[in-house]
Amino acid sequence: MATSTGYQMLASFIVQERYEFYRQFQELACEDLFNRQSELVHLEQDVRRLLKQDQSSGSAKEEKMHGFDWKRLSASAQRRSKSNHWAKRLEIRDKIKEYYQSILLYRKVFSLPHPKE
């Protein structure tokens, strides 16, 4: 039987001794969350700007309702409205979901046991 070396030997040791010492990359994870937050802040600013544009006097009546009626907002994409408000909302929905999933995953990883001393 061949002698294990390198990662194979290390993996064998970890399994046999139930010794866990994987890096959690907490600083990188926090940086990632900050980047995700920053991206969401910019998307939030974009959607607030779109709401103001939709409310402006030159906008069509349908567009003025985007802040109050999700049905009209979602239908705006099919009407080929000048406002890309619905697309921005969908982008935000995806980004928020990714952000929340990241928070939950990082919290789960950070709660793993620390290496034995």
Could you walk me through the main structural features you see in this protein, from its secondary elements to its overall organization?
The chain is mainly α. The chain is 67% helix and 0% strand. It is built from 5 helices and no strands. Helix 2 (26-55) runs antiparallel to helix 5. It starts with 5 loop residues before the first helix and ends in a 7-residue tail after the last helix. The relative contact order is 0.14.
Largest sheet: none
Unreliable segments (pLDDT under 50, ≥5 consecutive)?
Answer: none
Q: Would you tell me the overall average pLDDT?
A: 81
Share of helical residues: 55-70%
Total count of helical runs of at least 4 residues: 5
Question: DSSP strand (E) fraction?
Answer: under 5%
Quick one: how many beta strands?
0
- Radius of gyration from CA coordinates: 24 Å
Which secondary-structure class do the elements indicate? Answer: mainly alpha
Terminal CA distance reads: 32 Å
Q: What is the H/E order?
A: HHHHH
**What is the overall silhouette?**
rod-shaped
